[in-house]
Amino acid sequence: MMSTARGTLAVLAGCLAAAGSGAAPAAAGEQVPVAVPLTGVENALHVKAPELSTGVPIPLPGGPDAPRFAAGRMLPEPLLPAVPLSSELPDTRVEAPLSQVTGDHRIDHLGLTTAGSDVRTATPGASVNPPLTGPVGDRFGLPGMTLPEAALVTPLLTTAPGAALDLA
């Protein structure tokens, strides 16, 4: 056996061992946490900065509806299918101190909290039909004439966000 063949087999065996060692891929999360550094505000304005904790949603694409042919149409329906996306809006908390800004020590801070909620969206789609039909049997296989059609499928956004505002 040549040395290059032995080296190739050794690399292949190493790859198979690494793949079979139980190393699982990282689970895909639905959001990425975001840390917003606001210490520059504290240093510049000499006041306590607001605290912000949130995340960035990661949209997960779904499978679009497959185009299907209908009787009397030349092109499939829909020509450009809408692609569904789903995600989750993250929990967000903003807390801003007010006692230094207003000078009133009865109101200490302003807080805004939003709860996470599911988001479903779909990209726009399109449907087009040219002025010809498919072959017609009683016309010796020649296409028929129809009115041309063009349509846009509107994008979709569905969610149920909510927020709570508190003064303490």
Write up what this structure looks like.
The protein is of the alpha+beta class. Helix content is 17%, strand content 38%. The chain is built from three helices and 13 strands. The strands form four sheets. The protein has a five-stranded antiparallel beta sheet with strand order 1-2-5-6-13. A four-stranded antiparallel beta sheet has the order 3-4-7-12, with no helix packed on it. Strand 9 and strand 10 form a beta hairpin. The N and C termini lie far apart (79 Å). 2% of the residues are buried.
Radius of gyration: 29 Å
Strand order of the largest sheet: 1-2-5-6-13
Number of strands: 13
Report, as a whole number of angstroms, the end-to-end distance. Answer: 79 Å
- Strand composition percent: 35-45%
Largest sheet: number of strands, sense, barrel closure: 5 strands, antiparallel
Mean of the pLDDT scores?
79
- Provide the helix percentage: 10-25%
Q: List the uncertain runs.
A: 18-27
Instruction: Specify the overall morphology.
Output: elongated
- What would you call the structural class? alpha+beta
Total count of helical runs of at least 4 residues:
3
